[in-house]
Amino acid sequence: MIDQNDIALMNHPENLLADHWPKALAFEEQIKTAIVGQDQAVRLMTITVFARGHALLEGGVGVGKTTLLRAAARAIGGEYERIEGTIDLMPSDLIYYTHLDEAGKPGVSPGPLLRKGEKLSTFFFNEINRARPQVHSLLLRVMAERSATAFNREYAFPHLQVFADRNRVEKEETFELPAAARDRFMLEIPVAPPTAPEVLDMLAFEPRFHDPDRLLAHVAPGTLDFEGLNDLAAAIQAQVSASPVLRAYVRDLWRASIEPDVFGIRLRDADLGELIEAGPSPRGMSHLIRAARVRAWLEQRDHLRPEDVQAVFPAAMGHRIFLKPVYEYRRAELVPELVERILRSVAAP
Q1: HSE on the CB side for 56, CA within 13 Å?
Q2: Deepest of 137, 183, 215, 293, by most Cβ within 10 A of its Cβ?
Q3: How far apart, in whole angstroms, are the C-alpha atoms of residue 237 and residue 231?
Q4: Average pLDDT over residues 178-193
């Protein structure tokens, strides 16, 4: 039987948004019980969750990427699966695994992608750049369609979000994510080492930060209703409007990401006419707006402002600007500078 309050919320999306706004803030606060000094990364993770996208975290060793993703998965609720990226990982390892039963007979059981079925809420791919391109190809369909084919049947994952992390330090036995795989991630979230002295002191000297499992136990499980997130995300996208002037601003940002020299943008030691292989795709721009609308909702507004777009632009666009091979090795240097100059050069309304 459907509760009358649920009917009222469905008939009035603005009520749905108002009802869930405190829950979104509670979600952030729960993550912050385990993660300190990473407020920007936590906010971008929150935006990804409520925009129903996928997130790729990138940073050095030991900066808290895995802990952040595990904390988010615990707070979201639903079923959670994880796989480690290794050089010998094959696509079939996500689908099934073979084993010997108690009688010593060989058997086949569903792998991490399938065994939780439709209740699978979060799939965490640790060190995704250690996996082969064949594995990335399988992941593309799962991320795009939230489904997979195995054992002569179709498996659907209506609530699935894929979280992955990538270690930017290790280069041995790693594979660069192809452009198609990178484009499937709504946001690429940087996780940098904290610099505030008080945070460094906490991380170094407080015992609670030395055991990630005990730390994560303080995150309240199931803070969100994972089965209701799709409807909530749709309501956010429908209710947060964009003015014609804002739309024109976003179109200029898009063009500047493809042809920066047209906007008079210059970089040190780089020929912009020969720099960019390809700019953001239409899917990438839709991801940008989806993320910006969630950011506006979190700020309790029903319309987009330039600062909403600007706040998510680096995380939504940086990994979607593809450089020509001669410049790709300088990507970590050139792309952040280019993104910053685009935001400074394109006039905001």
Answers
A1: 24
A2: 293
A3: 10
A4: 90
Q: What is the dihedral of CA 175, 179, 182, 183, to 10 degrees?
A: -170
Class of domain 4-233: alpha beta
Residue 143 to residue 105: CA distance in whole angstroms: 35
Per DSSP, helices labelled H in the chain are 4-11, 13-32, 39-51, 65-76, 92-95, 133-145, 179-184, 197-205, 212-216, 229-239, 244-258, 282-298, 306-317, 325-328, 331-345
Neighbours of 258 (CB within 10 A): 12
d(CA 349, CA 347): 7
- The pTM of this model reads 0.91
Kindly state the DSSP code that residue 240 receives in the 8-state scheme.
S
pLDDT tier at 61, thresholds 50, 70, 90: confident
Give residue limits of the domains in the chain.
Answer: 4-233, 240-345
For residue 248, give the amino acid letter.
Answer: A
Q: How many CA atoms lie within 13 A of 221 on its CB side?
A: 6
Tokens coding 216: 């994560």
- Give the tokens for residue 180: 């198609």
pLDDT value of residue 219: 93
More confident residue, 307 or 96: 307
Residue in the block written with tokens 């994510």:
177
Tally the C-alpha atoms within 13 A of residue 111's C-alpha that lie toward its C-beta.
19
Buried b (16+ CB within 10 A) or exposed e, 39-60: eebbbbbbbbbbbbbbbbbbbe
- Give the β-pairing of 120-126 and 161-167: parallel
Q: How far separated are the first and last CA of the chain, in Å rounded?
A: 48
Residue 155 CA to residue 257 CA, distance in Å, equals 37
Structure confidence by residue, pLDDT tens digits, 30-47 = 999 999 999 999 999 999
The class that CATH gives domain 240-345 is mainly alpha
